[in-house]
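@channel sequence for tomorrow's demo:
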Amino acid sequence: MTRRGAGMVALAAAAVVLLALTLRIAVASLSPLLTAIQRDFDVPAAVVGLIGMAPPAAFALAGMFAPSIERRIGLERLVLVAAALAAAMLVLRAVAVEAAGLLAATAGVFAAVGVANVLLPAVVKKYFPSRIGLMTTVYSSTMAVATFVPPLVAVPLAGAIGWRGSFLVWAAVAVAAVVPWVAMLLRARASHADEIEEPRASVLARVVRVPQTWALVVTFAVNSSAAYGLFAWLPPLLVDVAGVGAVQAGGLLALFSFMGMPVALVVPVIVSRVRRTTPFYAVAVVCGLVGVAGLLLAPAAATTLWVVLVGLVPLMFPMVLVLFGMRTRSHDTAVALSGFVQSVGYGLAALMPLAIGVTHEITGGWTAGIVLLGAAVLCIIPAAVVVSRNETIEQAWERRTGRTW
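structure tokens (generated this afternoon):
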């Protein structure tokens, strides 16, 4: 590798890590401060509900539009736009003076984050083609850290410098994430490496005709359904069915969130080395069903164990991220696959928190919601069979159609 090439790869690594920090900080830094914000201006329950629904909804919309925009302006340019928009919206969130402004800035943040979510696997595919597992581990682990750290420090930070100051600290991280993307774009331009390929609208049309794509959609949807459903409802569910206190329930939610950290560290590297997915699906299904059964049949007997087991279902998130790179030949196919899977997957996942809430409202209990979660986990099994075929999206399309991609 040339010195110039090595410098570009190092710059890309820094850019990926800083952007990964921004992606989860933007999501995790708001809810702990809602009480402090409400001392300055009213935030109606409806707005809080919209903010809660915003991440999966915004991610789904971003997944729909990001691939077509990327084809027109280029990968690095669009990531830079997303990073800059996220930084700007985080600053605006810090200076909001009413609920509508807070909601608008938050929606803008999530839109930018959604675009970056789609593009990061393609960045890894382009700049680290022989280190996809390692780099996916790096950025998914970074996102895991950035998920559980802000809730721990946001409130003490707000106590020291105010909630606006706390927001500005996170905004500073987002601003720092913009810098290496600017440098990457300037380097690419200087070396004439930023030429945009001809738009290939046919890529998405081909991707959606491959069964593996839909199996990844199901996998991603179940993963995100479990995550967002339990992020929204796990504390009150545990208080009612397991008899724990509110503080302990909050700690168990933090434990559920933390389970993403160890799996993010090991899953992408192992998947890229063994090139098999069946064992990971098996762990997710067995652990998820045992955890669900425990919450249904003996919630108070081993509450922590049930939460840990259900918390292993989202191991599929880093697995799918690494498959976006491993199961595609080119970065434009990776963008199309990532965009479609995340768009449909997040759209379906947004229904789980709503479904658990509605069934709880109708029945007055949590049994129906827990059963829904178990039913979702069962949907992984046929998806696992399809994904176990170790072939790229392009190969699968060529095999099915008899034509060259």
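heads up for whoever presents: The radius of gyration is 21 Å.
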